Fold:
Amino acid sequence: MIADDFQHQSLMKRCVLLVALFISVLYFPWWCFVMVTIVGGLLFKNYFESFIAGLFMDAFYGTNAVSFHNFFLFFSLLSLVVLLITAILKEKIRFLQK
Amino acid sequence: MVYKSFQPKKEKKGVKKFAIFIAVFLLAILTIFPSIFRGFSASANNGSVPFLIFGNNVASSFSGVAFYFKSRQSLLDENKALSVKLSKMEAELSGFDFVVQENLELKKNLKENVGKNIFAQVIARPNVTAYDTFLLDAGTKKGVKINSKILTDGIFAIGIIDEAYADSSKARLYSTSGQITNVLIGPNNIPVEIHGLGGGSFSAEVPNSVDIQIGDAVILAESSNSIIAIVRSEEKTNVDSFRKFYLQSPASLFSLKYVEIENTK
Structure:
């Protein structure tokens, strides 16, 4: 039962962060999306929702002619890189909680 | 005492590697076949524009309430708005009159039947869209066409429609980083190529012999009735044969609420 409650809380947190991710993509500057991705990457494993959000940002805001050095999937790649970095950081970080 | 560790529990590492492989493969496919991505882009726009419009409407309905709690902030905003207005008026004084006069004369002689411009609300602008693009709430249903110019105040050209959907459209700004635009500068209409730097800024390099002054108006080469920028400053370079100028769009791109889309028939 304790394990079920923990999983339920974790799922709720993930849903809340998903809503925050959605709001940051639509209403806030792009760096808010990066911050939410970092938080999600640190808190949850396999937080690929941010990769989907990055794909969405490129599709929604980009055009044929607008790109970073001829690569128009910049935010998809950025979210993937941030997720990889947070995954590496998680293997190095450990702290004690009473 | 409980250890809370960020160390991941032992899991099947193959799953994570597979997921990363799928993500990279997807990116590669979308890069090689951009038409697939454009289809996704159309769906994203059609589905998400109503959320943006709703957000803008909510923000504007709360703006009156916020005024009572932000008296100092309102003074700062008013100061900023007045500064923008002042720079616009300086642009008008600096060589704008001849463009207006020429525009009026051209319109009198024009035999083509050009329709009125289409007004569109800006629902996302460069401080939200990470790219230098505008999202507008007018689409093909209102007659918006690809490659139509975007204007503010009827005369300041700021961009061009890149993608048009049924109820929305995406405009690329002339100042997009890396974008090169052919323009005419100053009262002598000197042809120059300007390079976008993002956020309404441009740069131009011209030979020393060319007479360009700070404050000169910059108009599009393809249509002389649209001002695209004003020469704002000059960078002193060590290379004696060229001069580098920085130009700025007279429109306040980060606070624009409405634009006009040229109705081309």
Q: What stands out?
A: The mean pLDDT of chain B is 80. Chain B touches chain A through 46 residues (CB under 8 Å).
